[in-house]
Amino acid sequence: MKYMIALLLAASPVLASAAPNNDKAAVQAAIAQYYNRPLAAHNCQLTEPPKDSETASDNIMYCMKPVADHSVTRNGKATRYVLYTGFAYDMKLKVKRDAHASSGLAELFVLEKTDGKWAIKQHGSDEIGAWGDVPENKDWRFVQMGEQNWGYTVESGYTGQGETTTGENFLFTDNSNRVRNSFISNGRDNGAHYGNCDEYKGREKRDCENSYASIDAKITLDKSRPSVSGVWALSATVQGVDGKKRYKNQKYAIPYEGKTHVAPKSYPLNIKY
User: Fold this and answer.
1) In b/e form, how buried is each residue of 45-63, taking b as 16+ CB within 10 angstroms?
2) Distance between CA atoms of residues 165 and 180, nearest Å
3) Which of 35, 51, 98, 105 is disulfide-compatible with 62, CB 3.0–4.6 A?
4) What is the signed CA dihedral for 36, 75, 176, 21, rounded to 10 degrees?
5) C-alpha closest to that of 207 among 218, 199, 215
6) Whole-number pLDDT of residue 40
7) Residue span of the signal peptide, if any (predicted)?
8) How confident is the model at residue 56, as a pLDDT?
């Protein structure tokens, strides 16, 4: 399956830049006060899972390190978006928890400069990835999510029982001055499970073809629709095959509903439980 990660998100009316070095020490010091629990063995800072995490009571913390740091002018104020990511760490066994279904953690800090001092104004996190870790540092991208809102995005994936699913993760601010997160599935391929359907005959071949899926979506920002809480909608362009259904550049609107982006029920890549 060809995974479509291209997010055409670079066309921003306000340019963001990598943070200047002269402020980085002050920003890191402000964030260090939040963490304040170093793990010397891995040169990282420990943080607890989100309150709604399934691992919240499972002796798990996350070993966090800085990944990205960008400067913008937000609502007329000097603002820094700082991304930390980390792997799952078993506090009882003192080892990385690298189970297949275990995620890593991404944590976003938004700081403003007032009277020459940087202070954390918003902060939030999301569990992302597999094997107890997040996607590689180089895969994260800084994106503008609305006229005065930014964040980071990355693709993550999971493979189990011959099926691979991928999705685009977003961690960003909105006008409620909170850090929000969205996850939109953008790929599904079960070819490793079903193999080549042409190798079967009769009913077995029909059953294979009816179950086989190789489908992906290109996710873009949709600025043509009114923003909600200062955040633009997303749009998905879908192509591929899912059983008897065929998709060729079919578009689906994915609105922002105040806390997260929600794909319509008709979106063919919705995760089914």
Assistant:
1) bbbebbeebebeeeebbbb
2) 23
3) 105
4) -20
5) 199
6) 93
7) 1-18
8) 62
Question: Which pLDDT tens digit goes with each residue over 14-36?
Answer: 345 565 567 888 998 899 888 88
Residues of the chain with pLDDT under 70: 1-21, 55-57, 272-273
pLDDT of the residue at 7: 41
Torsion angle of the four alpha carbons 60, 61, 65, 66, in this order, in degrees rounded to the nearest 10: 110
Residue 50's identity, in one-letter code, is: P
What are the residues facing 159 on neighbouring strands? 164
Longest dimension (CA), the chain: 75
- pLDDT (tens digit, 9 = 90+) per residue, 67-85? 999 999 999 999 999 999 9
Half-sphere exposure of 137 (CA within 13 A, CB side): 11
What does the block give as tokens for 88?
Answer: 């799952």
The full DSSP string for the chain is ------------SS--EEPPHHHHHHHHHHHHHHH--EEGGGTEEEEPPPTT-TTTTTTEEEEEEEEEEEEEEETTEEEEEEEEEEEEEETTTTEE---TT-BEEEEEEEEEEETTEEEEEEEEEEEE-BTTBPPPGGG-EEEEEETTEEEEEEEEEEEETTEEEEEEEEEEE-TTS-EEEEEEEEEEE-HHHH--GGG--HHHHHHHHHH-EEEEEEEEEETTSPPBTTB-EEEEEEEEEETTEEEEEEEEEE-B-SSSB---TT-TT----
Predicted pLDDT of residue 109: 98
